Amino acid sequence: MWRINKKGYQINNYKGLLGILPALLFMLIFFIGGLFHSLTLSLERQPLAGQENRFWAYKELMNQSFLHSIMVTVGIAAAVAILSGISGLLAALFLAERSRKWKWLQIIFQLPIGIPHLLSAYLLMQVFMQSGWYSRLAFRLGLVDSMETFPVLIHDDWGIGIILAYMWKEVPFIVLLIYPFIVKLIADWKETAEVLGGSFSQTVRLVIVPILLPMWVGGMWVVFAFTLGAYEIPALLAKTSFGSIPVLAFQEYSQFGLERQPFAIAMNLVLAVISFLIGCLLIYFQMDWFKKGRRIW
Amino acid sequence: MVKRIKSPGIITVFFVMLFSLFLLLPFVPLIIWSFTKYWPWPLLLPEKWSMDSWRYLFSASGRAGEGLFNSLIVAVLTLVGNMVLGIPAARVLAQNEFRGKMIVFSILLAPLFIPYTVSIMGMYDFAIRLDFINDYLSVAFAHLIITLPYFVATIWFQFRLIGAKYQEAAASLGASVSKIFFWIEWPLLLPAVLLGSFLVMVISFSQYLPTWIMSGGTMLTIPVVIFPFASSGNSSIVSAYSLLFFVPILVLMLVYFLLMRINSRKQFINRGEDIAIRTNKHSNQ
Q1: Among all residues of chain A, which has the CA nearest to that of B200?
Q2: Which residues cross the membrane (chain A) (predicted)?
Q3: Contact A223, A278 (CB under 8 A)
Q4: Neighbours of A207 (CB within 10 A)
Q5: B16 vs A: CB within 8 A
Q6: Which of B95, B119, B176 to mutate to test the interface with A (most CBs of A within 10 A)?
């Protein structure tokens, strides 16, 4: 009676796995399927537009200005991911250290989570513009004497406005992601570290960051992938010749007619491939890191 | 043992203050702009105030009501989809070990790590070939792709915290699978379900590009209504719309905190959670 025979056990085991099927099928059909469907769409010939070659969209992408666009888009995404990763970690550490006293700080730090990117772009545009509120404050404080002396931060050459707007959104995201873990790690390890004579900064460097690293890097990858593909912030805050790929692709997609859509899809596919490759690289490094025995959990 | 109480250094406090101001200050001009039409440069506050933007918002051409309504329908559909697909999947991922689990998990989380715009463009082509699919439904499908990873991750984490001890105990006492789910797992899961639902609704509310692509630019949700104003730079109207946008988010937040409070009143759940966390700590070591 008590012995479960092997076959029954196996069937039971597989029956328990059924719950995952709907979600898995959904993702396979719509996310992966949509991706491949897009790929076939981008390889369609357009005889009416004089595009007989199957790879015309990709051929058209092979030029100097698109390469420049890739550099700009990837560069901005990497800058945003790294900057918000570092500030998010510092902020989360600070919050975890004194969250009991400064509860209101937590509320402030989580406020931007609920604000869409479109509005975050608009909010920052309104304060950082040359005619914006900060330049008015600076004028009142006597720091600038005319609108033109306030530094150009929106629609600028370096994308500073874009980076600021993304950081406004993503630093709180990183904090939200790693804060619970940091609280738990500090509770678990702080006393041990103190007994062994470590200072707080040593605890952070030698215990918390190594344990947290996979999750922290994963969070930065999420930010990177999102920034790579997001449209709203560069569309509002970049100057017209900036060349952010999502903006270019959406222009092609929505304004230049059906026969240009394969071109837009090809651009977006390039972004997806870049994100995938960088992800593979990160996973490889993480495996390597685990192999070297830094695994603590 | 004497406890050292460190006070934060001046530099730390300075940076924290700076960062808080960076997060908070942009809201001030937003509120002011929505109540004025004309606000020239060096003035910190406008001289003339007006309610025109708010009146425009709720006029026939403002379409604020329609935007709110559409956003709400899509968000609710997305949430239902997340519940139906996400909870069973998270349960399996947290409680079972099987071959290829990491692959399944990474497919479910893939939209977080790979820009999803290209998939949605492909989906739109599907949708126009299958002409009969309702617009609300197809937009909700697009949002479902974007939100499902967040939802699954949240629920998965809570399932891991709960562990499998209670379910085993209940099963050995003869409880059926559905009984175990509704009487043991669901109450313990509720905080995570609430948090996940809040995230899903907020993310669904804020999508511009997926909504536009999936409906071919025809469905007016709030971001789709706002975007043209924002890029043409009509500050007053955009500010009014933005504040309107915060209303559903604030309502959601209130509902979330209210439900959390009601939930934590129930003694049983409190006790359950404590034990769950404690057992989890042991199993971690």
Answers
A1: A114
A2: 16-36, 66-95, 107-129, 158-183, 204-231, 263-285
A3: no
A4: 19
A5: yes
A6: B119
Residue showing tokens 């918002």? B57
Question: Region A90-110: what's the mean pLDDT?
Answer: 77
A215 token code pair? 């999750």
A131 phi, psi to nearest 5 deg:
-100, 15
Nearest CB to B206; choose among A118, A135, A272: A118
- Identify whether A21 is part of a domain: no
Q: Does residue A25 form part of some domain? A: no
Closest CA to B249 of B200, B212, B192, B209: B200
Low-confidence ranges of chain B (pLDDT < 50): 1-5, 267-269, 283-285
Q: How far apart are CA B251 and CA A281, in angstroms?
A: 42
Q: Is residue A93 one of the residues assigned to a domain?
A: yes
Q: How many CB atoms lie within 10 A of CB B103?
A: 10
- Taking residue A265's Cβ as centre, other Cβ atoms within 10 Å add up to 27
Instruction: Specify if A110 maps to a domain.
Output: yes
Whether the per-residue pLDDT at A264 is higher than 60: the answer is yes
Across chain A, what does the average pLDDT equal?
A: 82
Provide the whole-model pTM: 0.85
- Return all residues near A217 (Cβ < 8 A) that are at least 6 apart: A85, A282, A286
Nearest to B139 by CA among B221, B260, B52: B221
3-state secondary structure of B222: helix
Token digits of residue A251: 């222009």
Q: What's the pLDDT score for residue A77? A: 92
* Rounded Cα distance, B253 and A179, in Å: 20
| B25 interface with A at CB cutoff 8 Å | yes
Residue type, A128: F
The DSSP bridge partners found for residue A46 are A51
Q: Look-up: residue for tokens 């796995």?
A: A17
Write out the two tokens for B139.
């937009």
Per-residue pLDDT, A297 = 41
Tokens matching residue B145: 């792709």
Q: Which residue of A has its CA nearest to B282?
A: A188
Question: Domains of chain B, with CATH numbers?
Answer: 62-284 (1.10.3720.10)
- Tally the domains of chain A: 1
Among B residues 117-146, those touching chain A with beta carbons less than 8 Å apart: 117-123, 125-126, 141, 144-145
Question: Rounded CA gap, B16 and A200, in Å?
Answer: 19
Question: Residue A105 belongs to a domain with what CATH number?
Answer: 1.10.3720.10
Buried b (16+ CB within 10 A) or exposed e, B190-220: bbbbbbbbbbbbbbbbbbbbbbbbbbeeebb
The interface pTM score, or ipTM, of the predicted complex is: 0.84
- What is the rounded distance in angstroms from the CA atom of residue B111 to the CA atom of residue B82? 14
Nearest to B123 among A30, A268, A269 (CB): A30
